[in-house]
Amino acid sequence: MGTEAKAALPLRRSASGGKAAASTARRGLVLGLLVALALCVSFSNLLLGRSAAKLQRMHQPNNPKLERIETFQKEDTGERRNERPLAMNNGDGRVYDGDTLAQIMKGKRKFPRGRNRLRYRPGTLDMPPAEALRYCYVNATIYKNHTKEGKQSLVSLSDRHKLIYRNIPKSSSSSARHAMQDYLDGEDSRMKHDTMEELVHRKRYQMISFIRDPLNRFYSSYDEAFFRMGPWMLNGPIVRDKPRIRQAYNNSKWRVEKYPYLYEGFDTIDDFRQLYCPAEVLATGRFLDCNGIPSIDDGNLAHRFEQFVRDYSGLDPFDIHLNLQMGSLIFPTGEPFPVTKLYNATDAEKGWQEVAGRRGVEIPDGEMTHGRKITRRFNVSLVSKEAKRKICRLLALDYCCLNMQLPKVCREAGEDEAVYCSWSGGTRLQCRTRWSPS
Fold first, then answer.
1. Angle at Cα 49 formed by Cα 48 and Cα 55, nearest 5°?
2. For the chain, how many helices (H) and strands (E)?
3. How far, in Å, CA of 240 to CA of 233, rounded?
4. What pTM does this model have?
5. Tens of pLDDT along 78-90?
6. pLDDT tens-digit map of 137-180
7. DSSP 230
């Protein structure tokens, strides 16, 4: 037993020595790895330092190499001197040529590498409005007050001619109703969106609508909304025998309470009329005649309009007529309706004659007079440039998604008031402005 014990002692000593050797080897290995890691870090810092110095040299003012990088996108083939400029430096960013951008959107030209978003001015894309609409995606959460119809939309449907007309308020909608019902066998219908897509994509129906210059439409929209939301819609001769209109006004009058100056001093419709209609016309009692003659507004009504424009965010219209045109052309998801063609509401008769003519129907000249030809009640000529440019910013979504050119007063705006659109690639146009509604 003792011998066994003695024999065992050397064995224990040998195991202890082996563990010590293994521990020393591991420490050596770890130390070696740390040294190698330190060398790698030092080498990487050296490379990064050289890269940073190179970038710093490149970004010196008047660096010709940087100028070429910013102005051109290198093609896969061909020399740089033969490349077409894609964009021009515009101080705070690049404004892309509309023709070139249209080629990129259609896949005829590659999306520039190193770019997340391509800016351009409204109305410059080389494509018709209906085609531009197909690339557009609207943030339905932000613009929820402009789109309230849910899973179906009001249209005029003609199964005989495989035609769907989508109504947009204040865009020749009265003439359109006349053309569809009296010439094209159309009937008003609450159409489910699934049905709409099936008719257009599978059954080859055509879907059309009429659009209008957003700025001019805004004047008409405000004028209509102002009349509809006046205190005379609660009591007075206009609504005496119209209880449903009185009830509708009563339910929605809170929407204008944030603009108390709009109806300040107005109790009746006569208080309003005397500011835009000549006394001699009012004396005849033919009040509808006031709608056909120029306004005598001396600035009282125009001032209220300008104050409203200053305060209006563009996101909470107090009447449906102030809704964006795009609000009538998108699904609740923000994706566009499958519109085939968009016509200009300014020449609605010509547009409807074209629509009818393609279906073997003739609409005589002078037939598209069913719209209400009402002159502006406020004096538009007194509206300032600043107010007009603010309106263009409020309506940027319409200008961008419908590819409509800005009016001259807005095109000439400075950088801080400018309106731009942008496309971020893929299949959707992201319509943005330098100014963001708040």
1. 85
2. 15, 11
3. 9
4. 0.76
5. 333 333 333 333 3
6. 899 899 999 987 788 999 999 999 999 999 999 888 888 889 99
7. S
